[in-house]
Write a structure and sequence with these properties.
Blueprint (H helix, E strand, L loop, with lengths): L7 H9 L15 E4 L5 E5 L5 H12 L1
C-alpha cells in the first residue's frame, strides 16, 4: 500500500486524499475510501471510523 511497490490503485487513492494529519500514506489496514461514480475520491476514513459513522455521512458526500 505504501512505498515503491505500492499498487497503482492505492497510489491514486492516497494522492487524492491524505489522512487528517496531511500524510498520504496508509498507516494501517482498514483505511477506507469512498469513490464517486466519476472515479474521484470523495472521502477517506481512517481505521477507527465505523461503518455506521460512514453511513451517517453518505447523503452529504453523494449529493
Amino acid at each position: 500500500m505504501n512505498g515503491d511497490g505500492a499498487c497503482d490503485l492505492y497510489n491514486i487513492l492516497k494522492s487524492e486524499k491524505a489522512n487528517p494529519d496531511g500524510n498520504p500514506d496508509i498507516g494501517w489496514n482498514f483505511t477506507k475510501f469512498l469513490v464517486g461514480k466519476d472515479g474521484k475520491v470523495l472521502a477517506r476514513f481512517e481505521p477507527m471510523v465505523t461503518p455506521e459513522e460512514i453511513a451517517a455521512q453518505l447523503d452529504g458526500l453523494l449529493a
